[in-house]
Design goal:
The chain has about 375 residues and is α/β, with parallel strands linked by helices. InterPro entries: Elp3/MiaA/NifB-like_rSAM, MJ0683-like, rSAM, rSAM_sf.
Length: about 375
């Protein structure tokens, strides 16, 4: 397949973030700012944009030096490379583990994370150059590991079609993890990519109570809409994984909630479930506790005790959760794994498969910074 002939989903065919039309529209409709290059200490900052469609959100458009992030060798993550075209996320999930990364930009991990979104507008072009290098190892690249690639900003900037195309054209497998129903726009493109490379799709759906979902994930699509996206992907032949995580003590860990969740996931056509208990890193912890104090003050003392010494739920709680959820997973034939034991085995499998299927040497010429370094 010649990927450069797939013009129907070319990201430049719609609202191109770098086009003159978009620049004029953004300036007239929203009063686009041209901030000094040293704003937030970022090099490559082009402008900051506010638009009526995204009330209260500012997009800071930057030119990235690299698209690929190398995951440290010591990490237990099941992949070696990631791409994060956005930093910050308008999904505004109270528990989001990535909140603390905004502190590297001298922004706070609360409202700034939700409302000050960094957009690497040249990601597709930079990525295409990186994966075209002769020594690129063609290892799987993970999308959605830090902030969501299909958050609402993607509807404006359309970076993902170019990213998918660049990876597929250069024989690179990819995985996509999202809460965004905008994924449906790119399902035909991902299905074409799947003809040539391994493509994994995962949908994150943690809450199956509409009222709770709207208060704890106020910027996300509804659970019903995400389940419909799972169905759409499954209908195209994808074995979709649903990330039932985080499971939150006394909020989403009842038998009734878990049973309803797994039933809905099965009916949507998913192939498996990965689950995991809530973990609260610094940055997310404070924001989550503030939400608890507003919405469920009766639970705040319990959570303070549970997460007093660690970002992770206790081993006892995780063991208890496994005993509760595993029989339900078996009932619905959605055998996946707990997040605790998922990464190590999958990364080992990936590395062995890559070594067996390719004679290419390791991508020594590709030396992007660790994931925490943004640009």
């Amino acid at each position: 397949m010649r990927w450069n002939q797939q013009s129907a989903l070319d990201p430049t065919s719609g609202a191109d973030a770098g086009s003159d039309a978009d620049t004029e529209a953004g300036t007239e409709a929203a009063g686009a700012d041209a901030p000094p290059a040293e704003l937030f200490g970022l090099k490559g900052l082009v402008r900051s944009v506010r638009t009526p469609e995204f009330a209260g959100v500012t997009f800071h458009e930057v030119l990235a030096k690299s698209a690929l992030n190398k995951v440290p060798a010591a990490s237990s993550m099941p992949f070696t490379w990631t791409i994060n075209p956005y930093r910050g996320c308008s999904h505004a999930c109270v528990y989001c583990f990535a909140r603390s990364t905004h502190r590297y930009l001298d922004l706070d991990s609360g409202e700034d994370f939700d409302r000050q979104v960094i957009v690497k507008v040249n990601t597709p072009e930079v990525l295409a150059a990186e994966v075209a290098k002769p020594k690129w190892s063609r290892e799987l690249v993970a999308l959605g590991t830090n902030t969501d690639p299909y958050q609402r900003a993607e509807g404006r900037y359309s970076l993902m079609p170019g990213i998918i195309t660049a990876l597929a054209e250069h024989g690179t497998a990819m995985s996509v993890l999202t809460k965004g129903t905008l994924l449906r726009r790119d399902l035909p493109l991902l299905a074409r990519a799947k003809e040539d490379v391994d493509v994994e799709i995962s949908m994150s759906i943690a809450v199956y109570d509409d009222a709770l979902q709207q208060t704890i994930e106020p910027g996300t699509p509804t659970t019903t809409a995400r389940l419909a996206t799972v169905r759409a992907a499954a209908n195209l032949g994808f074995d979709v994984t649903v990330f039932l995580m985080p499971v939150m003590p006394k909020l989403t860990d009842s038998v009734d909630h878990l049973d309803a969740a797994l039933r809905a996931i099965k009916e949507a056509g998913a192939s498996r479930v990965v689950y995991g208990a809530l973990h609260l890193r610094p940055g997310a912890r404070e924001w989550f506790f503030a939400w608890l104090e507003r919405e469920h003050p009766e639970l705040l003392p319990r959570y303070r005790r549970m997460y007093a010494k660690s970002s992770y739920a206790s081993k006892d709680y995780r063991a208890w959760l496994s005993r509760r959820i595993n029989p339900l997973i078996d009932t619905y034939d959605l055998r996946g794994s707990a997040d605790d034991d998922y990464p190590m085995t999958r990364r080992k499998d990936r590395m062995q498969a890559a070594a067996a299927s390719s004679t290419l040497t390791h991508a020594a010429s590709l030396t992007p910074p660790p994931q925490e370094a943004l640009f």
